[in-house]
Amino acid sequence: MSSKQKPGKDNFTRNLVIAVVLGVTLIMLVPTLLSKQTNSDAKIPASVSADRGYGIVFNGELTDVPVIDIYEDFQCPVCAQFEAAQGDYLEALIADKKATVVYHTLSFLGPESIAAANAAACSADEGKFLDYHKMLYVTQPKENSGAWTNASLAAAGQSVGISSQKFTNCVSKGTYGDWVSNVAAEGAKKNVNSTPTVFINGKELTRGNAYYDRNQFQAAVEKG
């Protein structure tokens, strides 16, 4: 879908079935996308909390602020539209410590989603998750087009100031493959079967314009 097009209902929903069809591995990253079982021995990246569905957490120490859970797939075109509409606002909430924001990087759409989720986790270890997250959406290719390989995802880190060999190794070895599986399993437990899906204080935000209209989204956050 072109970013200029208004997302329709059919295109909004990204079903888990796609992940089953595209059962191709990419450098040992093989999460069981439909399983609700998590691996307690999985290596997890910085800022991740198992108690928060294995999401990457910002401002987890805060109390009496809205808690925003975002379920996304880096290959999802509609997720890119959500990021374009609300990404800066979410980053401001994080910077100003006005909300706890938890990113759940799902992998419904196949092997390149898995690779991108792993790479994003590696960027969290470098303190660059938000920058890398934004970059993936800005440069999002067509789904499973072959554009996102471990090599290209590692090289892309340089565009946001990541140049360490540790990051390259993390991406190329699929260090967080089991964690990607855990995120998928936790999403399944909450019956998340489409992306983007947003919860505010544990309540799912009704699909519609609030996902793409800044004023409506902000009102939903402030209402809690």
Descriptive report:
Helix 4 packs antiparallel against helix 5 (129-138). Strand 1 and strand 2 (55-58) form a beta hairpin. It contains nine helices and six strands. The chain has one domain: Glutaredoxin. The protein is α+β, with helices and mostly antiparallel strands and 224 residues long. The chain has helices spanning 9-12, 17-21, 77-95, 111-125, 129-138, 150-156, 165-173, 177-189, 214-223; strands spanning 48-49, 55-58, 67-73, 100-106, 197-200, 203-204. The protein starts with 8 loop residues before the first helix and ends with a helix. The radius of gyration is 16 Å and the shape is globular.
User: pLDDT under 50 segments (min length 5)?
Assistant: 1-34
Q: What value does the average pLDDT take? A: 88
Main β-sheet, in a few words?
A: 6 strands, mixed
Strand order, largest beta sheet: 1-2-4-3-5-6
Briefly, what CATH class?
A: Alpha Beta
- How many distinct folded domains? 1
Helix content: 40-55%
Tell me the strand percentage band: 5-15%
- Tell me which CATH architecture applies here: 3-Layer(aba) Sandwich
- What class, by secondary structure content? alpha+beta
Let me know the number of strands.
Answer: 6
What name does CATH use for the topology? Glutaredoxin
Question: What would you give as the CATH superfamily?
Answer: Glutaredoxin
Pfam families: Thioredoxin_4
Transmembrane segments: 12-34
Keywords: Disulfide bond, Membrane, Oxidoreductase, Redox-active center, Signal, Transmembrane, Transmembrane helix
InterPro entries: Thioredoxin-like_fold, Thioredoxin-like_sf
